[in-house]
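ok so for the tutorial part 2 we go from a plain amino acid sequence to predicted structure tokens. step 1 is just haveing the sequence, like this:
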Amino acid sequence: MVQTMAAVFFIGDAVGELLFDPVGAHSIFESLVAVALFTGMIFGGLELRRTLERMHTQEAALAVASGALADVIRAQFTDWGLTVAEEDVAFLALKGLDVAEIAEMRGSAQGTVRAQLTKVYAKAGVSNRAQFAALFVEDLLGASLVEPIAKAG
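step 2 — the prediction. this is what the tokens look like for a chain of 153 residues:
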């Protein structure tokens, strides 16, 4: 905005001086400054447009990736044969809620939620929440990260 106001000022001033003193060094300098400001406005506007388009594309890709992760998780839950209640509890556990929060959200007892989580962990082949979450984090990071660490040791 400031650049636009400066460009309008310098263009007006340069045009005024060129009408009265067309060959003066000051007039020529102000004309060059006005052209530079105007060119900067154009390039700045184009870059802003490209940046906004890139940001929109990245937001769309993030939304797709988020949806894809949810689909991967659902498919894994289906492969494990989780019940609907176990799926709900497992999703909430992956989101970071503790047993008390899950029980409150589902309107069930904490013991029921613990029992469901135990069944989920057993079907997933893990023994706790950290291992359960790690199953999905490993998919995000890629299995190739594990091998170099093992070879280095």
